[in-house]
């Protein structure tokens, strides 16, 4: 459970950092008036959807960390046999990384365009019709489509990985190691599929003329989610390859346990 | 900077919030059934939670029938007894308390108390309820499958939970239980996301974190705990479902059952215990923190006095929340853990008593010299403080490894946790219902029935659980349908058990009075007006009672003060609402 506690420590310290900016030392019984307590940032200056996503990421992170923790505890029992992973996983990794990069560049593009709209407006921003303002959405759209394609390719790659592992004779209940392989990759795949639903919707939105700031938030949320899932994927492969037997990790385990 | 802001005040929008696109219901179905209004969802959550809670109440009476009068009722076999115990525990802890505090009170109170029109993501909020409802249906369905519901005990420890010796272990019982829990967690996560984001993002202007009523602080922190703790239960249920259905060996060691060598091998039952209690202990505080928050508000309002040490109360809630994640293994002292491990967890367990005790002192100091109105909500609050204190004190015994080991798995443990997380939070729930019912229904609950309900419930609970401690100290184990002729158990235990059962039936029947009061007052209760308790918080300042769609009038309220300005010297009334702009010079006393 050490890994869980480390993850939890990260979440808790982030929350505490945020709380420490909320004037927790204020004496609200002495201060009345509308803004007497309001100085400083009392509200998270992020869109609702992004805060929501950050909360979801904490929950999803917790879920995977708990699985990793169980993996560590289970692999110490002697019936554990490390299964070899087929090399196609590396191609899958590159595909997911590619999708992540495309989403990031879509975000950068969308943000730049949104800021140009602001500049056009000057001090009194006038809502600018995105459609007439050059081909704004057109430049975001292909990036999003590429991200979609790469992600779907990643999922297909993951299924091929399953077939290869099963072809090598490692089925779900052959060994705890293979069980964890299927459960973890399956769970990760489910999260990707959930994300894809949102990404498809966002991509569809760019076809028609929608307000740019809505697109920015959506792309922002998708990009962050994809980076996170790529990170989880890396850790997952790291854990499943049994690299945690490395002397360094072992040392860490001894220190922390 | 501050002056400039004040000068420009009239031009500023009423709240620095994003434009809220309120969903407007068009017909009966979208208004009352698939509603996206947090208030309707709250009532739906509460209704289902109370209904399934009544099932658990009946189950507890059946348990007491067996314990008080063993061998008298043929329909209670050891198997059915285990099923009653399991379902009673699981329903009460997860499907009643968690759902009612967070889904019920959370949905109703958070938007109203922070001055928001609705939750942050109303559609997700609606899904949350319907998935919860589905989870309850799956759970109830397990009563009607061949073999009946699972009888594994509410902790569902493997390997016994999925073996044929346990009721429901090889049938559908355990599968439905695990599925239902997984659904509950998914549904809860959707709701929890809403509660957290709403508190963070949708507070009205002037409502800083340090001006939130403690109810919101309690529900908010409990939600954060739940969001981080429930995944552990989800992981455990998913793994156990795999073990049960697909013959994997996460938790299942190599086993021989009736001469057959099962296909399992190498799994670790202790792993399940870690996962379960990593959820299970924060769960105690998921139930307790909203109760702490609500009781603070009830005491302050009904004693007409500001809460003592608001800051400390907030810090204590947050501190308890953080600490609750590093005490889980105190449920596992007898699992063969390393003694130093036990020492660590005993220490953290005792440390958590510090902020908890701080809260108890602050409640008492709030009452001190207060203008105490012995209304039903106040009675229930007082009952809570006493009961929580009692249950907490026996927690200190059980938190110490060396005392816990002989007491482990005795009725002492049962008495302890029923006091601290059964009776205590339920008393708060009753108090809160008597307090907020006028806002929900526009009519008061009957005060006389309420007082009778309180005294029977409160005294009755003590008659049930106080003697149970002694039964436990004698060494009577829990989870035994019959004690038989054990030499160490004196005859008086049987007498005491019958007495406890009679008390339990009385308390159970008294709840009918409460239900009658709930339904009768809907039509015949006294009209309550907007603010019958003369309370300060925003939910009492709405234009309509019950609050209409969108909660507040055309403009959101502005918040000028903290929520506990009661009996302020110099004020025209004995309370100043949070949205009251009056300037009263205040001294430095807390």
Account of the 3D structure:
The complex is a heterodimer of chains A (257) and B (590). Chain A has seven helices and no strands. Chain A starts with a helix and ends with a helix. Chain A has a single domain (2-116, 129-256), classed as Cytochrome c oxidase, subunit III, four-helix bundle (Four Helix Bundle (Hemerythrin (Met), subunit A)), CATH 1.20.120.80. With 257 residues, chain A is mostly helical. Chain A is flat. Chain B has helices at 2-7, 28-33, 38-68, 78-114, 122-141, 173-201, 214-246, 269-302, 310-323, 339-367, 376-399, 401-407, 411-441, 447-474, 492-524; strands at residues 256-257, 260-261. Chain B has 590 residues and is an all-alpha fold. In chain B, helix 5 packs antiparallel against helix 6 and helix 11 packs antiparallel against helix 13 (411-441). In chain B, strands 1-2 form a two-stranded antiparallel sheet. Classes of the chains: A mainly alpha (257), B mainly alpha (590). At the A-B interface, helix 1, helix 2 and helix 5 of A face helix 1, helix 6, helix 7, helix 8 and helix 9 of B.
